[in-house]
Specification:
201 residues; mainly beta; Immunoglobulin-like; 3 domains; 4-stranded antiparallel β-sheet; 12 strands; 8% helix; 39% strand; elongated; binds calcium ion
């Protein structure tokens, strides 16, 4: 008995091509898996119908299953937060709730993209002997495994290229928290600055 799985993309993708008479037509994405297949790779974000089909040579039967598929975890967060991956409000840099945190930041830290919230990042000044050091603690969304969170420091805001991770002490870096301390003491005449940078993998 053979078994195949058809994957039909039901989103409204259109293209122009020969024989179309210049009009758009629906492009149906189809993926066929044979019996030995154990998974499926979807070609795009969207709604799909999986057809599970079986045949013994004389009779065939099938069942259809609907599912939502996403190319990545952030794509899923975008769709679940803003109903659409392609909405202007869903882009990485957008700040729909106007709380100063762009979407990729909200996702990486596990805060809401649609309800204003204060940043959950904690800043501290840690005394050590006669010196003081900046320390920053960043809560992480453990499910956001497709981003990197990096803490950087500088002694001057006037030189953007001076932000660096060099020498910084990583006190904790787990799936739920990143805590980093500066390795240069902050003084009245030589202030220090730290920042958090989030990048999509
Ligand atoms: Ca925001």
């Amino acid at each position: 008995m053979d078994a195949v799985t058809d994957v039909t993309h039901s989103s409204d993708q259109r293209r122009r091509g020969a024989g179309d008479g210049g009009c758009g037509r629906v492009l149906r994405e189809t993926v066929v898996l044979w019996q030995s297949a154990t998974g499926v790779t979807f070609p795009a974000n969207g709604s799909f119908t999986l057809r599970l089909q079986a045949s013994d040579g004389s009779a065939q039967t099938f069942a259809d299953v609907s599912t939502l598929a996403y190319l990545g975890l952030f794509d899923q967060w975008q769709a679940q937060t803003f109903s659409s991956n392609s909405a202007p409000a869903a882009t990485q840099a957008a700040d729909f709730d106007h709380d100063g945190l762009p979407n990729l930041f909200e996702y990486a830290l596990g805060t809401s993209g649609t309800a204003q919230n204060l940043t959950s990042i904690t800043n501290e000044v840690i005394p050590s002997g006669n010196d003081k050091y900046l320390r920053i603690t960043v809560p992480k969304n453990s499910a956001a495994t497709d981003v990197t969170i990096v803490v950087e420091a500088t002694g001057t805001l006037a030189i953007p290229s001076s932000w660096s991770t060099t020498g910084l002490v990583i006190l904790q870096n787990t799936s739920t928290v990143l805590q980093v301390q500066d390795n240069v003491a902050a003084t009245q005449n030589f202030p220090r600055f730290m920042r958090v940078r989030v990048s999509k993998l």
